[in-house]
From TrEMBL:
The chain crosses the membrane at residues 21-42, 74-91, 112-136, 156-176, 183-199, 227-249. It comes from the Bacteria. The keyword Lyase does not apply. This is ABC-2 type transport system permease protein. It holds the Pfam family ABC2_membrane_2. It comes from Trichococcus patagoniensis. GO terms for cellular component: plasma membrane. Keywords: Membrane, Transmembrane, Transmembrane helix.
Length: 254
């Protein structure tokens, strides 16, 4: 446990030194600010930029528009940022050979991987929930009369999908030992999930639902009872990716 905590601390220190933590916090904080602002002022901006004589009828923005921006930016931008920042989580260690010294001094390989996963998970957790609470604060300010019933379910679902992507990235880092392999594996993984939806009978088991139907959850048309299969699949995939990464890392050269 002491070695695990020490190596995890090293990971967080590296994220600070290479500015990844600062960059993630800054970008996700910006997204958190932009979500409600876009929902609030986009209709006015569209009206001002339209040519004379042309009018567009746009409904009055509500808090749901703010959360629509949150989930849209979270999946299209937020997850992309995290994947890019974490794609090289083990590439430098392989390149510089620093893992050899750690392993020869008795540090278990599984401890290295779990510390890497924990560090990446903390980066995602801090960034994601910072974005959420900023969005929540501004949404309550601009749309105080709006109500949301299943907000916790929808935001936790997207968060868990991010954890799944991090596990896939770690597996890719072990398999390819560079920064490009994890990106390719993540892209292939997402492609498989999109193709999965082509089979309606199996789509309820697709973990992509956790990141694609958040507004349905928020509006009460998709309930927790209907997500159990997707949650189970996501949990099994996270565990399988970590298990495979540990097994492969134990047998691979450094």
């Amino acid at each position: 446990m002491r070695a695990y905590l020490a190596f995890t601390k090293k990971e967080l220190t590296e994220y600070t030194r290479n500015f990844k933590l600062f960059l993630a916090i800054a970008l996700f904080a910006l997204l958190g600010i932009m979500n409600p602002l876009t929902a609030k002022f986009l209709p006015d901006l569209l009206g001002n930029f339209m040519p004379e004589g042309i009018t567009i009828l746009i409904a009055e923005p509500t808090n749901l528009d703010s959360w629509t921006q949150f989930f849209k930016n979270g999946t299209q931008i937020g997850l992309f940022i995290i994947v890019i920042l974490l794609s090289g989580m083990m590439a430098k260690e392989y390149e510089k050979g620093t893992l050899i010294n750690m392993v020869t001094k008795g540090l278990p390989r599984r401890t290295i991987l779990f510390s890497k996963f924990t560090g990446a998970l903390l980066l995602w957790t801090i960034s994601y929930w910072l974005c959420f609470f900023i969005t929540l604060g501004y949404t309550l300010y601009y749309f105080p009369e709006g109500t949301t019933e299943n907000l916790a379910l929808s935001v936790i679902s997207l968060y868990l999908f991010g954890v799944l992507l991090i596990a896939v990235l770690l597996l890719g880092a072990v398999l390819f030992k560079n920064a490009y392999g994890p990106l390719l594996l993540s892209g292939a993984f997402l492609m498989v999930l999109f193709l999965w939806n082509l089979f309606p009978e199996a789509s309820e088991w697709n973990p992509l639902m956790l990141a694609s139907r958040n507004m349905d959850m928020l509006q009460g048309t998709l309930l927790l009872e209907q997500l159990w299969n997707s949650l189970l699949t996501a949990g099994l995939m996270i565990g399988s990716a970590l298990f495979a990464a540990v097994k492969i890392f134990k047998k691979s050269g450094l």
